[in-house]
């Protein structure tokens, strides 16, 4: 077996392959750099700017307001931590629009993880004081379950009532599932998550009254229209991107102004697109179990969204709610990519760092909910939780069996069609930049 030298250590070929495969999902490198200025290290310049800005804020601002001092201090601590993130943290699996963006995203996830650890060791009064310091209006916030009614007069079905449910939340359901489909890239997993989430609402309805919905709202509006429409849109975009080959031209080689602008815009699109197959006929039991664990973590993250706003008492429209949802959505992208590589690549022996932090965040959020919502969770019906786990396992494995059967029956045909499509189309020459 051949060996390679890394410093003073001699690594086997398997160790080299392992490091290379892990680096592809944890420290992706940028290929075909077009503008070198944006990818060269500027550590001295960055250090100079940070020190000068710190000196400016430290000696020029008025420090007479204690609350304002705390705000500025917290903001600057976060800012400088993100600067260190850009310098030291891994790129992750993505390089577009720039690796520094994904280093900042990872830095924010680490900050949120540390914040959750800090919160867990506070008492309830300290947590409430912290929330009131962030937003004094939260003193007057009320739980949605205390002021709204759910699943009332479900036998009354009119067009007016159905149309009234197409509000901003229905729109967010649609686009949310479109983004989820872009991340998961599997009809089977998307539909399974959608259906099992509605079952999750039923089993946890005794804890959160806002999980109660009329059957037509849950089945027709949620599963079929909003979720189903979003899944179809996301998978359609995935199919379109899978049919393209990505030959990126340097912006220096494009001579027209329009072409340069289009190439700059395309910097915010994926550098490549991976054809995803979570399961195939040769999948091992470990891989099947890994997909089931993926489903559990996904359901837990969704549950945390509702338990957090119920226990800590802030409305769904509050910045704490939608900022968390947006943040979780952003860090989910590299997390899913790293977890998929861990499941499907035999050379990848451990999960990526972003995936690890995401899992820790999900469990810490759940732990915070349990600690500060003991009165709520004391009402938990253990039988419902057991039935929920059994139903989730049954539906998940039923879905996985269907995916394996579909891959075994139609997989080769789809693969041939995909290869023909890839040979036929070129991403830039066909869509954006003729002649490049």
Task: Describe, in short, the structure shown.
With 436 residues, the chain is mainly alpha-helical. Helices cover 68% and strands 2% of the residues. It starts with a strand and ends with a helix.
Q: What is the β-strand count?
A: 2
Report the order of strands and helices.
EEHHHHHHHHHHHHHHHHH
Helix content: 55-70%
Rg, please? Answer: 25 Å
Cα distance, first to last residue? Answer: 44 Å
The average pLDDT is 76
- In terms of structural class, how would the helical and strand content be classed? mainly alpha
Largest sheet, order of strands side by side? 1-2
Number of helices: 17
Strand content: under 5%
The gross shape turns out to be globular
Instruction: Report the major sheet.
Output: 2 strands, antiparallel
Number of domains: 1
Q: Low-confidence segments, ≥5 residues, pLDDT <50?
A: 243-253, 415-436
Describe this structure in words.
With 436 residues, this protein is an all-alpha fold. The chain has one domain. Helix content is 68%, strand content 2%. It contains 17 helices and two strands. The chain has a two-stranded antiparallel ribbon. Strand 1 and strand 2 form a beta hairpin. Helix 9 packs antiparallel against helix 10, helix 9 packs antiparallel against helix 16 and helix 12 crosses helix 16. The radius of gyration is 25 Å and the shape is globular. The protein starts with a strand and ends with a helix. The C terminus is likely disordered.
Considering the chains and any ligands shown, give keywords for the structure.
disordered C terminus; 2 strands; two-stranded antiparallel ribbon; 436 residues; mainly alpha
């Amino acid at each position: 077996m051949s060996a390679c030298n890394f410093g003073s250590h001699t690594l086997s070929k398997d160790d080299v392959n392992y490091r290379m495969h892990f680096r592809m999902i944890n420290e992706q490198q940028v290929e075909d750099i077009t503008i070198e200025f944006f990818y060269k290290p500027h550590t001295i310049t960055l250090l100079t700017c940070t020190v000068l800005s710190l000196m400016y804020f430290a000696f020029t601002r008025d420090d007479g307001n204690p609350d304002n001092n705390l705000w500025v201090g917290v903001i600057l601590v976060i800012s400088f931590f993100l600067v260190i993130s850009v310098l030291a943290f891994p790129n992750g699996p993505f390089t577009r629009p720039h690796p520094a963006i994904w280093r900042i995203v990872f830095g924010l996830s680490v900050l949120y993880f540390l914040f959750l650890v800090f919160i867990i060791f506070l008492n309830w009064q300290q947590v409430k004081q912290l929330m009131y310091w962030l937003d004094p209006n939260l003193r007057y916030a009320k739980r949605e379950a205390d002021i709204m009614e759910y699943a009332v007069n479900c036998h009354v079905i009119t067009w007016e009532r159905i149309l009234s449910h197409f509000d901003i939340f229905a729109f967010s359901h649609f686009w949310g599932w479109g983004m989820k489909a872009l991340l998961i890239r599997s009809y089977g997993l998307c539909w399974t998550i959608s259906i099992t989430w509605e079952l999750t609402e039923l089993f946890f309805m005794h804890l959160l009254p806002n999980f109660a919905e009329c059957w037509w709202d849950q089945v027709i509006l949620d599963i079929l229209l909003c979720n189903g429409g979003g899944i179809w849109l996301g998978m359609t975009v995935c199919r379109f991107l899978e049919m393209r080959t990505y030959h990126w031209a340097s912006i220096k080689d494009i001579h027209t102004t329009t072409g340069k602008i289009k190439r700059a815009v395309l910097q915010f699109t994926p550098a490549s697109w991976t054809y995803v197959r979570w399961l195939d006929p040769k999948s091992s039991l470990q891989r099947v179990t890994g997909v089931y664990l993926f489903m559990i973590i996904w359901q837990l993250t969704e549950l945390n969204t509702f338990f957090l706003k119920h226990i800590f008492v802030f409305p769904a429209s509050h910045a704490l709610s939608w900022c968390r949802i947006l943040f979780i959505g952003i860090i989910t992208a590299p997390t899913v990519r790293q977890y998929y590589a861990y499941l499907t690549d035999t050379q990848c022996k451990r999960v990526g760092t972003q995936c690890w932090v995401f899992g820790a965040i999900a469990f810490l959020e759940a732990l915070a909910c349990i600690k500060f919502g003991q009165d709520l969770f004391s009402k938990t019906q253990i039988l419902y939780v057991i039935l929920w786990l059994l139903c989730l396992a049954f539906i998940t494995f039923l879905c996985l069996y269907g995916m394996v059967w579909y891959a075994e029956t139609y997989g080769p045909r789809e693969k041939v069609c995909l290869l023909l499509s890839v040979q036929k189309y070129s991403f830039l020459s066909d869509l954006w930049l003729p002649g490049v």
